[in-house]
Amino acid sequence: MDEKQQLLEHHHAGHDDYEYTKLESGLMSNSNTNNKHSSIHTEDRSQITGATWMSHLPSSTPMSALTIPGTHDSAAYTYSWPFIATQTLDITAQLNAGIRYFDLRCGLRADVLEMVHGQAVLGLRLEQVLAEMYAFLAAHPSEALIAQIKRDRKDEKSTVHFAQAIANLISATPDHWRTANTTPLLGELRSRIQLFRRFENSPCSPPPPHPPLPFAYGIDVSRWQDNPTRPFTIAHPASNVALTIQDHYSFPSALSLPSLIARKGGDVSELLDWASKSYNPDPHQGRQQQWFINFTSAFEFNLYYQITPREIAAGAYWAFRWEEGMNARLRNYLDSHADDDDDDGSSTRKRYGIIAMDFPEAGAKDLVMTVLRTNFEIAREKKGGWRWKKWLKKASGLEVFKSRSWGGLRDWWGESGWNGSKWKRAVCITQFCVFSFFCFGALGLLSLWLSLSERFNATASAMQLPRRCELRHEAGSNRVQVRCWV
Predict the structure, then answer these.
(1) CA distance between the termini of the chain
(2) What angle do CA 113, 116, 118 make, to 5 degrees?
(3) How far apart are CA 147 and CA 130, in angstroms?
(4) How many CA atoms within 13 Å lie on the side-chain side of 249?
(5) DSSP assignment, residue 46?
(6) Of the candidates 190, 199, 75, 52, which has an alpha carbon nearest to the alpha carbon of residue 132?
(7) In terms of DSSP H, where are the helices of 373-420?
(8) Least confident of 38-47, 155-164, 193-202, 431-440
(9) What is residue 276's three-state secondary structure?
């Protein structure tokens, strides 16, 4: 029995209530099947929900070929201090919103794996976090998760190695995990969790390079660099896996909020462009082995500025002016690049990799849904006679013309909301136009008044009659001199 049949039997045996026709069609697709895009019509867009969005994707899709919404320090929602908290949604809420990548940071204390953020203990155990994930996967077997587990502090009063404690926890529920060190297909990972191991393995483990193993305790990312200024790559040639990571979260010089967000936004957009341009949608070229992990998180704490993760993510007022955060800028980036339409009127499928965010529900409307919808080719109805709007959008750069129908204009206003970035930009443009109109109008009226005043004075002077005259007779001559005053 080959690997595909074993996988199908495993899924049928474990989840009878799930419709596996999609799984079978994805795994058993022959060379004539075109898996280049996953096409969803406009009227079916409502079927894509945060809880089940992976059910619409072919099972033959490599996980590295997807755009996966994630969270940074996923369990840091139990702490109230602003420089520790990075989330407000708990694990279940994140899962239902569409998050599929989790950054889990742990410390081993008295042989118990605790969730931590640096030196802060979050009051939550790793097994509690995993229990929520198991319950979600049991209710949604079409979904697949990635858990990156990091050793974030030294062991305290423990009799076992950190790696051994993780292995014990995973081996207690092996059906929920995929611990191979290769890139999985979506069908291989449905209802399971792929381990990203951000800690050194136990001393008894074989030295690298590790060959492809089914039980290698995950994809090794233990050579993760701390706060690199440029994206870096962790390569595993033996298992044909490479991960390019952007995690620049702090800057050496003191930066104001606008400058920090601009610098961080440049880091994020650079890797988004890289991931998108390097994507090869041809199904005959094999698996997409290159992973991209992009963190939008940052903070600033020094003598001059103290800027919290939430202010950077959601935005804040700075010098009496609202400064958009990373979440709004990410949403704007995805919206602007969604306009790279095909000739048939559909938006092309994108691959941006894993995007790990702080407070993804704040600062931008439906950010998680915007991220995950880039996995689909949204087929739109053709609207004849409105092609000029696409040209005008390119010529002027105005995002309001990104839709091919006037319904898109209504959507543009509806999605922006009163606090939306587009609404604020429209208000600013309107205020500038009104101010310019009054300024130029005032200058025009002043110029007209000066011109009329000068002309009136000249006319009045010419029309005035003399008020007093004086006659003078020059002695010794017959000449008379007349002098008049006005």
Answers:
(1) 121
(2) 130
(3) 9
(4) 22
(5) G
(6) 75
(7) 387-396, 406-416
(8) 38-47
(9) helix
